[in-house]
Structure to design on (152 residues):
């Protein structure tokens, strides 16, 4: 039986997988990806474009009470890490490509997560407000814009 002179497909696939995994591992280490698995707010300034948000948080009233994850991820381990993965992929693509606005804006899904965090932590305060029908279009961060990130 004659031998085929073509390059084995499995070897090409293994080489491609090795390159992808190698580049991924290098990028994860270089970008300090492991820090995003923790609750340390310093992870948010791995990308220099987040420095104003971090500095605003340092000056805010919530610095002593909440970290970035407390306000920007949903409650529960699985939803929290799903959101962190979604945020990480989104941030990675935008920061790597440079496709982000000069003034960072919260996305609609992140805004909803943040609103839910406000309502969870301040349930005793907001209970009466919600009881009289201020839900839906009412936004905590519309009126309390400087609570999490002090804006100058």
């Amino acid at each position: 039986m004659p031998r085929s002179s073509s390059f084995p497909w499995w070897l090409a696939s293994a080489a491609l997988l090795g390159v992808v995994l190698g580049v991924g591992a290098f990028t994860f280490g270089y970008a300090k990806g492991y820090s995003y698995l923790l609750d340390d707010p310093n992870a948010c300034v791995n990308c220099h474009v987040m420095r104003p948000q971090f500095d605003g948080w340092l000056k805010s009233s919530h610095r002593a009470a909440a970290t970035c994850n407390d306000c920007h991820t949903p409650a529960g381990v699985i939803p929290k890490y799903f959101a962190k993965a979604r945020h990480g992929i989104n941030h990675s693509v935008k920061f790597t490509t440079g496709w982000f606005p000069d003034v960072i804006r919260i996305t609609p899904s992140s805004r909803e997560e943040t609103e839910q965090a406000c309502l969870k932590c301040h349930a005793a305060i907001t209970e009466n407000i919600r009881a009289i029908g201020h839900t839906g279009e009412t936004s905590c961060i519309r009126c309390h814009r400087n609570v999490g990130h002090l804006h100058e």
